[in-house]
Amino acid sequence: MSTTTPGLPPLVDPAQLIADPYAVYRGLHEVGPVHRIAGTDGLPAWLVTGYDDVRQALGDPRLSLDKRNAAPGGYRGLALPPALDANLLNMDPPDHTRIRRLVAQAFTPRRVEQLRDPTRKTADQLLDAIAPQGRADLIAAYAAPLPITVICELLGVTPADRGDFRAWTDALITPDPARPTQAKEAVGSMLAFLTRLIAGKRANPADDLLSALIAVRDEEDRLSEDELMSLAFLILFAGYENTVHLIGNATLALLSHPDQLQALRSDPGRLGAAVEELARYDGPAPLAIRRFPVEDITIGGVTIPVGDTVLLSLAAAQRDPRRFSQPDRLDISRDSTGHLALGHGIHYCLGAPLARMETEIALAALLDRFPHLTLDTPPDELRWRPSIRARGLLSLPVHLGVG
User: Fold this and answer.
1) In contact, 272 and 360? CB cutoff 8 Å
2) pLDDT of amino acid 268
3) Rounded to an integer, what distance in angstroms lies between the CA atom of residue 208 and that of residue 201?
4) What burial letters (b/e) apply to 384-396, b meaning 16+ CB within 10 Å?
5) What span, in angstroms and rounded, lies between the C-alpha atoms of 393 and 383?
6) With CB atoms 3.0 to 4.6 Å apart as the test, which of 281, 291, 292, 347 could cross-link to 63 if both were Cys?
7) What pLDDT does 290 receive?
């Protein structure tokens, strides 16, 4: 699982975090709350796994998201053009505060509630399409198209303008090693798509979030052009990616735990609490966005030098036995309050209310329509996205139990 460097903790092998993450986390919890890992860019990073330490670090202003605070040569992430890079995942206050306030109203509980009926309609239409087939890949046919439809409707992106969005996001998260230019090509395609989209909205504004953001840019001068483009990119990308995996992982967890599935079917009123437990049990984002200390900082008794890359493991924190009793057990009656699946502090997931609503509706519609739904492949043959940044299935074959 590791290699040893004199004077430093063992180096965690990221390949094992992909192959069997929760087994690795169990071992790490027994060792301590802070570890070294080969990071997502191949360079060494610090991995924080203890719940208390992760939660505190998520809100610590000494841990910066701004890549300019990385030590020289110590971080090599995905290179995005300025038009996509000026987003909330790379910002600290005051710019982060300014931009987050501009879009916060789009994700209030009231605004999200207005999307509930359209979301249920979309879910029902998707299920109508697969019902006659008897079998389906729930990722391709349901978990993926549902959130992209919802987020595009929120922004005001028509079906004709959505492009091959899933292929682009897949290429950014897990590029094909056999295609070394794939991620760069996806970035170019996405930038061209957003450029056309914003130009079209400028020419023909409508009652949607993107038109409102353009007005903030053009009429109020509260956004730069790069910030506008980057914000549209982040809302589309994050609003789609995390929800796909949350729906897919939750469905698999229920199908793999028949007792919990039956408990939910027996009492649908538990659905809201069940989604919180499902998010804790197997959330979509194993890691929070990387951070860089602006000064030497001590976490879990380990001193991390200024500028080093720090990775906060949300997934490990969710399975910390010091915070959650029997953490590897799915229990929809558990009080999962305080889970970190969607973050914590000022960088808490902006779209969390929307993701929760979509997941509740997706599960409710699916379980209502197909009371005899089962997996259509052995669980150990399911394939996961080969990434330590995203926890999601590549496919989820199911038998619908009809016909």
Assistant:
1) yes
2) 92
3) 10
4) ebebbbbbbbeeb
5) 6
6) 291
7) 94
* Torsional sign, CA 153, 109, 58, 318: negative
Summarize pLDDT for 287-311 with one digit per residue, the tens. 999 999 999 999 999 999 999 999 9
Residue with tokens 């897990």: 174
In order of their start, the domains of the chain are 2-399 (1.10.630.10)
Say which residue the tokens 């619908």 belong to: 400
Instruction: Give the chain's length.
Output: 403
The number of beta carbons lying within 10 Å of the beta carbon of residue 350 is: 20
Q: How far apart (Å, rounded) are the C-alpha atoms in residues 393 and 398?
A: 13
Query: Which residues have C-beta within 8 Å of that of residue 338, sequence separation ≥ 6?
Result: 55, 323
Phi, psi dihedral angles at 302 (to 5 degrees): -110, 130
In this structure, what token pair is assigned to residue 403? 């016909």
Amino acid at 86: A
Q: In 3D, which of 61, 56, 33 has the Cα closest to residue 300?
A: 33
Q: Residues 147, 239: contact at Cβ < 8 Å?
A: yes
How many CB atoms lie under 10 A from the CB of residue 9?
Answer: 17
Give the mean pLDDT per block of 10 residues along the chain (403 residues). 47 80 92 85 88 96 95 82 90 93 81 90 97 95 93 85 75 74 85 90 90 86 89 87 95 97 94 97 95 97 95 96 96 95 92 93 97 94 89 95 73
* Whole-angstrom distance, CA of residue 327 vs CA of residue 316: 10
Looking from the CA of 125 toward its CB, the CA atoms found within 13 Å total: 10
Per-residue pLDDT at 12: 81
pTM above 0.85, yes or no: yes
